Amino acid sequence: MTEAARGQRKTAKASGRIGKSPQKTAKKISRATKSREIILDVLYEVLERDGFVHDSLRLALEKYQYLEKQDRALITRVTEGTVENLLAVDEVLNRCSKVGTKKMKPVIRTILRMSVYQILWMDRIPDSAACNEAVKLAQGRRLGGLGGFVNGVLRSVARRKEEFSFEEWSLRYSMPGWILEMWKEEYPQETIEGMLQAFLTEVPTAVRCNLTRASREEIMDSLRRQGVKVTASPLLPQILLLEGYDHLEQLEAFRQGWILVQDVASALVAEAVNAKAGSMVLDVCGAPGGKGLHMADRLRGTGLVTVRDLTEEKIRLVEENIARARLDNIRTEVWDARKFDERWEEKADVVIADLPCSGLGVIGKKPDIKYRVSRERIQSLVLLQRQILAAASRYVKPGGILVYSTCTISRQENEEQRRWFLEKYPFRPENIAGRLGEAVQEDTMKEGYVQLLPGRHSCDGFFIAVFQKDRK
């Protein structure tokens, strides 16, 4: 999914009641069937074929970029909203249908899911329109014989919508129970609910200013001339929050490489490292390149940043961003981070290890993550992270820095992984207190790490730990 599409999304706020106000109706449903055909295709790919929602939605919006902004916004909202609220949607269907969701034909199940979301979460779409369009979709997919079933289920949902008030968090926030149980062992109840609410709250598009190319003031002026609403992130002034634009790619600042899409939590990784001019930096799992590009920007043309990733496809993404940013002190390599490369042994002043993880901190942007991850998956990721850290630790010069980061809020992958690393390798914690600005001040920063939490820090869930290698 493009960040432009994400900026158009208006996800319902989390609350106990999910029924919409009956007084609000749409004045006009424009090109409704076409938009819903696209939604059906994307959701079918995600929910029935195990596609990733951000990838499937991005490809669809690129294919149909000629559509009106309001149509693209509808496609984005219904697609993401259905996935975000899937557990509650299925609970509603199972209460209103004699055929359980698991026994429905996949296409019919997808049509019903997207329609339930529209009926219960979208104020501006009349219930009758959602029902009628669902029947048209069934007919268009040669399942007209089930049109009566679709109509009957959805009209039952519309009649009974006042019944659907969920108190249990698993349904209210559509969060798998095992994840809630894991978090209950790790965080206070109010912290967990704050995260759950944050995941369902719309946020502006975050971009980082490429200060090597232009000043923040020049960038903000350019954006405002094109009608974009711009505010600075409260956590980091060079991160701008954008609203009110159509296609991000049409903005002059984007085309000129003055801004790059990057959440503030990700940007704080480079801020946590007090890299000196001329530093040799190795980013071992760097695609799509945000952290490496940020480090290259901070070095102001000095030193060299090498960004690695596993495949040519991932490296192409990095190279596209490098070309747009027009930075000369950064290069790319294809490399399996699990394998030790003796050419780099003790050569790096800084190693960035932003490693594969469960992604639980970015559920707000990638809602299907919560249905894909499992306890077993987390355990396998912990082993993968340790393999990569074993190699990465050997690239750091004596006295050099290794920064370990993840976009998750699982202690097994974060605090416990940090403790394991310090016990296993000749590194010590690097005090990062004061490096992340006044808005991020946690006691743990003196011990070299911080866990950023949605709902608390106005950013993605993210973990950052900085280590200094012992001098010989």
SSE topology sketch:
Elements: H1 3-8, H2 32-47, H3 53-63, H4 69-84, H5 86-96, H6 106-121, H7 127-140, H8 147-160, H9 169-172, H10 177-184, H11 189-199, E1 205-209, H12 216-225, E2 229-232, E3 239-243, H13 252-255, E4 259-261, H14 264-272, E5 280-283, H15 290-298, E6 304-309, H16 312-325, E7 330-334, E8 348-354, H17 369-372, H18 375-392, E9 396-406, H19 415-424, E10 427-429, E11 449-452, E12 462-469
Parallel strand pairs: 5-6, 5-8, 6-7, 8-9
Antiparallel strand pairs: 1-3, 1-4, 2-3, 9-12, 10-12, 11-12
A few lines on this structure:
The chain is of the alpha/beta class and 472 residues long. It has 19 helices and twelve strands. The strands form two sheets. Strands 5, 6, 7, 8, 9, 10, 11 and 12 form an eight-stranded mixed beta sheet that branches.
